[in-house]
Amino acid sequence: MFLHAQNNQISIKASLLPDHKMLVDQEITYYNPSDQQMDTIYLLNWANGYKDKTTPLSKRLIEDYDKSLYFANIKDRGYSKIRLLTCNDSNVNFYELKDASDVVRVILPSSLAPKESVKIHVIYEVKVPKDRFTRYGRSELGYNLRYWHMTPAVFEKKWYLFSNLNMDDYYMQPTDFKIDFTVPYGYTLSSSLDQTTSITENEVIYELSGKNRLDIELNIQFNNNFSVYNTEKT
Question: What pTM does this model have?
Answer without folding.
Answer: 0.90
